[in-house]
């Protein structure tokens, strides 16, 4: 099963229409895809990954393998209510806590800040492309997410450590993401991420050539009135190697009110006879404008 790959370099040329159609298909039928040629500095991406791994080795690894979780696994207990992961969370917008996290080096903080500045531009570009495909104003998602201080942006940094008994525990249990657009910078060698599609778990390969993996969260499904999907996914524990995951969430502000975009809603609260009257005049015309007229009728105009 070939995961959709969106080549951003094709959005400015003759292949724009085909690329936009592929993006729409990916959001509608898959809920996840990869982006290449995204113009984020690949040296910066590599630096972030390297510095995160150094931080894990120096500050997190020893503590993880001495944890109660590890002790339970050594007793051969099946763990169904916990995850085999070592993590920390960073906030970037509307305000940052990165310099408050104990043990993070200045180099790591600076690298993450630079990476996130570029990634937010990508997330907002992607949100505009989604809006275009949905027939919405290009700033609709950003404005819907904004609240008083703009969208909320945070990053979950996770290492899924080498696991001696992967059959007893999940790296991360099955879930959908609560928020908006998730952009994942992931491991280049160690697998483990899986998404559920068409009744099967699809294995997501490690990201080669600094592709960014994207999935849509619950709020995009709500805003699009179910047209774009948030998809259940999980991380499997692996016996060989540590898997790196740097997942950045472009989310609504806490006070943002999210609801389906009115333009995407079907007509509702309309008497069938009134619809039939409209239909009799427009039967052989396009359905879309008829639905728009029906919405106007339903609103009392």
UniProtKB/TrEMBL annotation:
GO terms, biological process: coumarin biosynthetic process; ethylene biosynthetic process; response to molecule of fungal origin
Q: Does the keyword Iron apply?
A: yes
- Cite the Pfam families for this sequence: 2OG-FeII_Oxy, DIOX_N
Q: Which UniProt keywords apply?
A: Ethylene biosynthesis, Iron, Metal-binding, Oxidoreductase, Vitamin C
* UniProt protein name: aminocyclopropanecarboxylate oxidase
Q: Which organism is it from?
A: Nicotiana tabacum (Common tobacco)
Name one molecular function that GO assigns to this entry: L-ascorbic acid binding
What's the encoding gene here?
A: LOC107790081
Of which family is this protein a member?
A: Belongs to the iron/ascorbate-dependent oxidoreductase family.
